[in-house]
Amino acid sequence: MPTEVLLPQWGMEMAEGTIVRWLKKEGDPIQEGEPLVEIETAKLETDLESSATGVVAQILVPEGSTVPIRTVLAVIAAPGEQISIPAIPAPPAPQIAEPSTQPTAASSLPGSPPQGQTHVQVVPAARRLAQQHGIDLSQVQGSGPRGRVLIEDVEQAIQAPAPAAAPTSPAQERAAVQVVPAARRLAGQHGLDLAQVQGSGPNGRILIEDVERAIQSPAQPGAQMVELTGIRRTIATRMMQSLLTTAQVTLTTECDVTQAMALRAGISRQWKGQSLSPLHLVVKAAAQGLKDHPRLNAVQQEDRVQLMEEVNIGIAVTLEEGLITPVLRNADTKSLAELAAESRELAEKTREGRARPEEVTGGTFTVTNLGAYEIDGFTPIINPPQVGILGLGRVVEKPIVSQGEITKGQMMFLSLTFDHRVVDGAPAAAFLQTVKGYLEDPWWMVA
Question: Fold for domain 3-77?
């Protein structure tokens, strides 16, 4: 019988996904476990694999569409098998005000090939790199399985000399922009360059309201307009929702990490090249602290709070387009060496776009580090539906008073943001005090 391919829920916080590109077309054979479609969520862009072997009998959601979880995306059937799922009607065609050479919305998705070109299979990290450098992926020879374009292939294309582009006249540039006639006339009256106007109509068509907005808010000479898209736009939405829907309070304390830095130096010498960072020590201390204070190891679900048994700590990793938090699962059960090795591996996979959905979802608490940027303290924003996030700043040598004498010590600020709806100030402060205590006497970490 036919098998429906559903948009899965990769993590409790996932509500929807965007269809970036179909890797198969209707009628193509497919094996169970073979990549079927590329999907972008709030966390990452990844391939959804087929759950059955057969042929792609029907594709129900077009590229560029954003749909909720558990939506039927496609149907896999046996060769020649009849299916009864009705086709989704195509949306009505937009009213055409004048001829245009602009591609359709589906073909203008980031990284999609121009109309008339064949589909190119690309790993997400390679697509991001190609977008950054303006590389046409249809012209890149893939060296991966089934000709899939890898990040190494894009890097080679970047290094290769680009052919000289044919000159484009101003008239051709103007013709490439979809504009309603009234908007074009108004732009001409005000000497406005339509290539710099963001259209809000169907398929990006420039409406008269767009021109009026541009006239009222002219761009500064030399200014660059950057549209929030993809992961960056999702992060912006989620962070605003986090601030609007939670009662966030930040507590800050200064921690004497002199002994912790001594432990770090000794272990780094033993590991011979595999360095131990302050982040790894804080993660270890936080994991133990969450076992002592389970109220912080929780997720918010409407009017209920679920205290989680597993301590799954997300580590904020910086990408060019935003932050992703790969998750160290069962962090409280792992040694310091295991936490350090796993966090390095997850960070590398995340930056290269190789992280699997299960590796960036399911976190119960987050740790974020700005110490590398010479930041002392800050106010991290909670990653919903979690109820807490711990930030660490740089390690600084300072004079400290110990047993009545002034000595030199190494100090670090810890900043805990918590949801006051779920945790009161005193329990949150007690958790932060516990983490501080574990860091100031760190030898238990290697006992």
Answer: OB fold (Dihydrolipoamide Acetyltransferase, E2P) (2.40.50)
